[in-house]
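Bumping with the actual sequence this time:
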Amino acid sequence: MKKITKETMVQYLLIFFIAAIMTMIGNCINTVTDKNPDTFVSILDGIPGLLILMAIALVSSILGFLVPKVPTIVWITIIGILLAMPYNTITGPVVAEQVGKLGLLPLCTPVLAYAGVSIGKDWVEFKRIGWRGILVALLVMVGTYLGSAIVAQIILSAQHII
C-alpha cells in the first residue's frame, strides 16, 4: 500500500495548480474566440468551478491512496456524480452552474499535454513496440475519431441540428 506523504500531496497540488492555470487560460481564450460576448467567462468567473474540480481530484487522489484496489478515476466519477446530480439539492445546482462555465476542450488540454509528455518521456519504450504497434495505435486513433464523427453526425442529423 502506498503511503500518503507531504511530498506527494505537494506534488499533486502543484500538478493541479499547473493544470488549473492552463485550463483557465484556455477557457478564457475559448470563450473569447467564439464571437459571442454573452458566453465570455473571465478567469475570475471560472475559478469557483475549477476549485470544485480540483477538490474532487484531490479527495479522489487521497481515496485512491487509502483504497488502492479502487482506481482514482472511479472515485472522481462517484464524487463528481454525487456532488452534481440534480437530486442533490445542496450542492447539485452550485456545482453544475460553476463547473458549467468551463469548456470541455480547455479541461482536456492539460490531460492531453500530460499524455504527450508521458509518451515523450518513454520514447525508447514506445520505439520498442515497433512499426506494428505504432500502426495499430494510429488505426485505433483514426477509428475512434471516425466512429465519433459518425455517431455525432447521426445524432445531430436526427435532432435536425445539421
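The C-alpha cells above came from a reply further down the thread. The helical segments are 6-33, 43-66, 72-84, 92-99, 104-121, 123-128, 130-158.
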